[in-house]
Amino acid sequence: QVDAVRVYVNSSSENLQYPVLFVVRQQKGVLSWQVPLIFRGLYQRTYNYQEVGRTLCPSEPTPETGPSDQIIFVDVSSMAPFNIAYELLVTRLENFQLETNKAFNFTASPSQPQYFLYKFPQDVDSVIIKVVSDAVYPCSVVSVQDIVCPVYDLDHNVEFNGVYQSMTKQAAITVQRKDFPGEQFFVVFVIKPEDYACGGSVPSSVHGNVNRTWNLQRTKNLQVTIVPSIKKSVYVQAMFFSFLSFLSFYLGSVVVAFVHYISTDMKLTVPFGSVSIAGSGIMTSSHPITASTPEGSSYGAIDESSSSGGRQLSSPERGPPAGSDTDSSVEEESDFDTMPEIESDKNVIRTKVFLYLSDLSRKDRRIVSKKYKIYFWNIITIAVFYALPVIQLVITYQTVVNVTGNQDICYYNFLCAHPLGVLSAFNNILSNVGHMLLGFLFLLIVLRRDILHRRAMEMKDVYTLDYGIPKHFGLFYAMGIALMMEGVLSACYHVCPNYSNFQFDTSFMYMIAGLCMLKLYQTRHPDINASAYSAYASFAVVICLAVLGVVFGKNDMWFWVIFSMIHVLASLALSTQIYYMGRFKIDGPDSDLGIFRRAAMVLYTDCIQQCSRPMYMDRMVLLIVGNLVNWSFAIFGLVYRPRDFASYILGIFICNLLLYLAFYIIMKLRSSEKLLPIPLFCIVATAVVWAAALYFFFQTLSSWEETPAESREKNRPCILLGFFDDHDVWHFLSAAALFFSFLVLLTLDDDLDAVRRDKIPVF
């Protein structure tokens, strides 16, 4: 048993010029203080205490001395020219050593800090120190220090040694045996003189003697419990669980692919004069494939069969020889667009009242496919240049935490933060493995479809010519890379989650949502979708706005006014482009005046003359609802100015994506198209998994919008395998939900593989 002695002193003197000095000399160290004891706060405030209590550095019994033999010298002195009365009391602590799984209650104040000893049991390699209090304030600090004398147990020096956290009602520190060669440590409790560090009120700046406060009552009742942490076997179980859970998706994909292969192999092979679509039924065609104009689509149209020199609508699809889908740099997109007669033809075709897929899939397949592959190569470049500095930065963050011992830098769930090596919360990093594994699996699924598509081209299957949705896989590849990078950057963020690096966790979320919307639009608008350069430039602008929002979005009203204006104007500009299929141009004979004349003419024609029924009713309904949603977001941001600006922007992206997906599915069903079993299953799975994931997402376990001490009030124990918390479950489920969401986009229009493109409506 380790003996400890506590010294209490009290002096009635308030003379700060002549304090009473106490010096305690022991076998291994010297401890000194003065009375009145002075603490300093903000704005040169001082807090003076006339009663001080300190625990002396304990000594362990040795063979030469008995368990109760300690020699202590207490020197009391003062330079005062007059007598000063003081009281001195030395007592022996009965409960100095903390026990495992046994709660201990005590009281502390700024001038009377407390610390206790803990020794690791033989079979315990890691423990969690849990400290709770019924009162939020006064603000306190919990520190774990090695057995070194003197112990740093005052407000101005508690951060000099060991690991420490600020605390209001709850704190938790994980301690490993390997970090303490002596297999024991001190747990130190310090009460701060002010509460601003824990989110309390900041003292006002005043001058004169008002800045001095005497004997402020700041006593706090605390309870400390030290419990064993998890064993190494739990780490192994958690790793197996994480990998096997997502490898089961690989197994399921192999089973589905095998069943599809068997069912395709059993189908009868039909002559080339018929249309054979693997896995999508058989449709016979007894007449040549021509680009006939459907009835009702002749608004301002010319005979497409004779336009452009009698070229059939899909002739660019049949032009290249089999197997010529290469990335040759000879072809450029401008080969098609710069021809004046084609430009005129586009103006006629795209402004028809009823558009069909054949109207918007007229470009050379090689050129369009090359255009969409740029998405894939560009996102790889972006990922490398974005991820490397991020990894370097978070390694620096973790190093600073380990070296300084300041656990207020990172906002972990300290009640479920399991360290491994230099990482403080390995469980939060491991749970992101699902994004990487499922992202890679999605790439394999897309690659398989791409290979099957190329084989069909080589066999001159009609599937690759005038039937079904044009197969361009560049955006799908980009989505798979984005999902993998989301896992990497989310893991980087959780190395040390805090206010400054939250954008790492959201940047690729913006890109995923944006790529999904682009892919959904590309499905029936392959010729007029945004280029990779403009799309990624738009994402770069969004990320720049997110950074500015993190810096200025807290209290600066001017930022929210500018951002709301940009948001509304961007929504209107994008709506105009979508409504007119990219054919809206602001031009005029009188330079600048022509802009206003053109805008006024469009407003009068489309909003006043035809106010009862717009020319493109379906598009108008979607855009009205979309603009109302975006304007609502803009007004909400302007009024409430949410502190979590990154999540606010992400909410805008997700709501727009869900709105567009719902519109697409509704219009698909309205057009008498059907949902095959696989996309239907993916839609249901997506909805169910997203609902479960969002439930765990809103179980807030920490918040960098508050002080570290306030954030720790939200900490909760692990809920899965004793290793993962609610946010880790969110990582698992959100990875699966994103994977199913991608499969929805990949398989949604498989029912159209045997439908002619001039029969597939555009919406």
UniProtKB/TrEMBL annotation:
Residues 305-315 have a biased composition (Low complexity). It is a multi-pass membrane protein. Pfam families: SID-1_RNA_chan. InterPro entries: SID1_TM_fam. One of its GO terms (cellular component) is lysosome. The chain crosses the membrane at residues 238-262, 375-395, 429-447, 475-496, 502-521, 533-552, 558-580, 620-639, 645-666, 678-698, 729-748. GO terms for molecular function: double-stranded RNA binding; RNA transmembrane transporter activity. The keyword Nucleotide-binding does not apply. Keywords: Glycoprotein, Membrane, Signal, Transmembrane, Transmembrane helix. It is found in: Membrane. Residues 291-337 are annotated as: Disordered. Residues 328-337 have a biased composition (Acidic residues). PANTHER family: SID1 TRANSMEMBRANE FAMILY MEMBER 1, SID1 TRANSMEMBRANE FAMILY MEMEBER. Belongs to the SID1 family. This is SID1 transmembrane family member 1. The lineage of its organism: Eukaryota, Metazoa, Chordata, Craniata, Vertebrata.
